[in-house]
Amino acid sequence: MKNPRLPPRRPSGLNGGLPARLQRRILLPAALAWLGWLALGQAAEPVDLAKAEALARQYCVTCHLFSEPSLLDQKTWITQVMPRMAIRMGLSPESVNQHPEAEALWKSGRFPREPLITKADYLAILEYYKAKAPKEALAQKPVGPIGLELKQFTARPSRFRRSVGAVNMVRIDEARRWIYHSDGLNKFLDVIDSGGNWVESLQVGNVPVAFAENGGDFFLTMIGTFTPSDIPRGELALLRRENGAFTRKKTLLLNIPRPTHTNFADLNGDGRTDLIVSMYGNNIGRLSWFEKNENGDYAEHILLPRSGTLSTAVHDFNDDGHPDIAALVAQEVEAMYLFLNDGKGVFTPQIVFQGHPLLGHSSFELTDFDGDSRPDFVVTTGDNGEYPSPPKSYHGVRVYLNRGGTQFEESLFLPLNGAFRALARDYDEDGDTDIAAVSYFPNYNKSPRESFVYFENKNGSYTANTFRTCISGRWLTMDAGDVDGDGDIDLALGNYMYGPDKAIFVPDFLMKTWERSGPPVMILHNTLHSKPARR
Fold first, then answer.
1. Domains identified in the chain, total number
2. Distance CA 337, CA 494 (A)
3. 410 shares a domain with 322
4. Measured between alpha carbons, how far is 495 from 483 in angstroms, rounded to an integer?
């Protein structure tokens, strides 16, 4: 069978359609017109900035940690952030009424019908940020030059290409030497081999965002819609292999709010594997575990009744013999939660670390980074797709080391504009942990090599390199594993070429190149043990 191909088409919907974490809050442009009277940020009388700062600290912390003015440039505060604050504080109910999902927005409880702040206090806060914010965004501190000497890896684009790159999920299957990836435009689960050749495809009628195998079954998480929406269209489906192909056997969960990840564990000690589903949502979302019953059905237990959970990891963090849950929550919360399990499925939440609401968490993994047999967090902050804004100085890869029990400490920060996923492994087998990272929002003007960076650990210092064709795709996601069976760790990068309109500058020639020939997947074969066979 020939590789199925379709003509390229741009995704429909707001901003071209994106994964949930790129469009974390709904855009309500009507508010900008309603707030035209303050377009220039002019207060009626001179503002006492000390009192204005006190107001900012009073009101802003009702929803999230306080945001220092230096976190953004003046223009972004005035034209993007503060108008959105006005909506959240009930100053523009008409903006909600004009939205096509107004009923769902009101139901979410996140948009008050009556003002929570006076216009005078709001204008004073606006003046505070206008006066204290820098004219230009604070520059990213470079980690050092990014070289093109990625000698240990050989880049091989996938041969299979149905249309343009629309991959927001990629997963390596070491046992079968396959790579699974999504086609978000045409709603397929695609399978390629270690050489990038097409193996099979399954049309699933929804947008795959996560794929996992557990106990011989396959679980496909589908978000429903890329674009921010509070109409639940997400699904979790059970797949099996029958007669040498994937078959959709059962829909386990239906009409859930934009799920992004599914995990598995026996959380209540009954011998059955339960589900942990991150339902990112938009304004309405939640993190829940689903208890598997004797008849195979699932009963939901809500862990966190709010939107924004990206993914989870399961580990016994407090050494009591019971599986606990770590969950990274984005949106304005920007925090890592632990849910400590009593062994019967009753959980106690605890925040491990939390950042300001502009931090832009995008992914995490749980791994033993420093080799002390305790789990650490490798986290990326790089979401720059919420509204047009410059690169941010606090975006990059962070490592939080476990200092015992549930105590974690940030021990490493590698600056990287728009960092979206980082995978820490000993890729060169020299005894320390290296980091591979992709950026979905690199600074194409100044440093396009940020698209993919391999941070090689050399006794605690890091050298950064990439491959020569690193800008042949816009890498949104990544997985690591031995895809070719030679005993070393390879990488697979997923290309999602369309991003939020005007969020960052992307040269026209790149967009045309991606549309014409950008590979859905780039395979980076690790040649540490053996060189990959010629194609």
1. 2
2. 28
3. yes
4. 18
pTM for the model stands at 0.92
**Which tokens hold the place of 108?**
């979410």
**pLDDT reading at 14 higher than 80:** no
Give tens-digit pLDDT for 230-272.
Answer: 999 999 999 999 999 999 999 999 999 999 999 999 999 999 9
Question: Edge-to-edge strands of the sheet including 234-242?
Answer: 208-214, 217-222, 234-242, 245-256
Same domain as 380, residue 346: yes
Place of tokens 């300001």: 356
Give the model confidence (pLDDT) of 269-305 as tens digits: 999 999 999 999 999 999 999 999 999 999 999 999 9
pLDDT digits (tens, 9 = 90+) for 29-86: 545 554 554 444 455 578 999 999 999 999 999 999 999 999 999 999 999 999 999 9
Residue 364 is assigned to a structural domain of this protein: yes
- Decide: residue 428, CB within 10 A, 0-12 exposed, 13-18 middle, 19+ buried: middle
Phi, psi for 243 (deg, rounded to 5): 55, 40
Q: How far apart are CA 98 and CA 41, in angstroms?
A: 24
Q: Are strands 146-147 and 461-465 parallel, antiparallel or unpaired?
A: parallel
Report yes or no: 294 and 368 within 8 Å, Cβ to Cβ.
no
Supply the range of the domain harboring residue 114: 65-138
The answer as to whether 190 is a domain residue is yes
Strands (E), 207-258: 208-214, 217-222, 234-242, 245-256
Residues 124 and 142: their CA atoms lie apart, in Å, by 35
Domain boundary among 91, 110, 138: 138
- DSSP, collapsed to helix, strand or coil, labels residue 510 as helix
Cα separation, 317 vs 324, in Å, equals 6
pLDDT at position 391? 86
**Placement of tokens 């684009």 in the chain:** 157
**What are 278's strand-pairing partners?**
261, 287
Please give the full DSSP string across 25-56, using - where no structure is assigned: S---THHHHHGGGGTT---SS---HHHHHHHH
Q: Are residues 342 and 394 in the same domain?
A: yes
The number of helices, as runs of H, and strands, as runs of E, in the chain is 8, 29
